[in-house]
Amino acid sequence: MNLLLALHISNLQLLSFSLFVLLTAFVSYRLKLGLEKSLLIGSLRTYVQLLAMGFALVYIFRYPNPVISLAVYIWMIFWAARIISNRIENPPFPLFKIIFVTMLVSYLALNIISLGVFLRADSWYAPEIFITIGGMIVGNSMNAVAVSLDRFFADLKNRREELEQNLLFGMKIKDAMNDLVRDAIKAGMSPSINNLAGVGLVFIPGMMTGQILGGEDPLNAAKYQIMIMLIICVSTALGSMLVVSQVAKKCFNKRGQVKF
Fold this sequence. Notes:
Layout: H1 3-6, H2 11-16, H3 18-30, H4 36-62, H5 66-87, H6 96-118, H7 127-158, H8 160-168, H9 173-198, H10 206-213, H11 218-248
């Protein structure tokens, strides 16, 4: 039996889950956390954005086109880069272009290699495969890149004098930034590494859950989830390393001073 159909969620049931958000917002209000507005707006955006994507994917899956699949994937990366760049407070220079170009090239290559070379799917470019798996890559990596950049700029600001002094004594910019870049990458990768340690013991990941609810054999669902977890691990490492490395190159002016 297809359990996904048996667990069909009505519109009223879907709205009822908003009570959890309202309860959380109430707790935030009582504790004076100031998160009520963000919670409510974020929840509303979740409803609107996911339902809109659902309607769009119905059409895209019905009339598959590789060009449209690629356009949707680029659209996802565009918004991921925008969200990351907006999250960083008072950056010393615009970040969007660096993040977008780096993520676009690296994640597009990773998606194609993973699906076309390793998985050897005959229709790896089909939207059901390319968009869904690509979306998981971008979504998980987005958080990793954001955490890495947060850590990098915080350390850069706190260690500004030390860095400039090292440059005055003749150290190269790349050598002076090594520790900051390394710590930032480790911070971005930590959640993915923790997930690898806890998956199957502490939680059942989203893709495996969805496949099991859809009636898929649990063992086959586990194999697909292993593939996804490993791809996500690589993508978070790749995204954090490339973005932070590119950003680090632009943090100093010609006089060897930090751009803050």
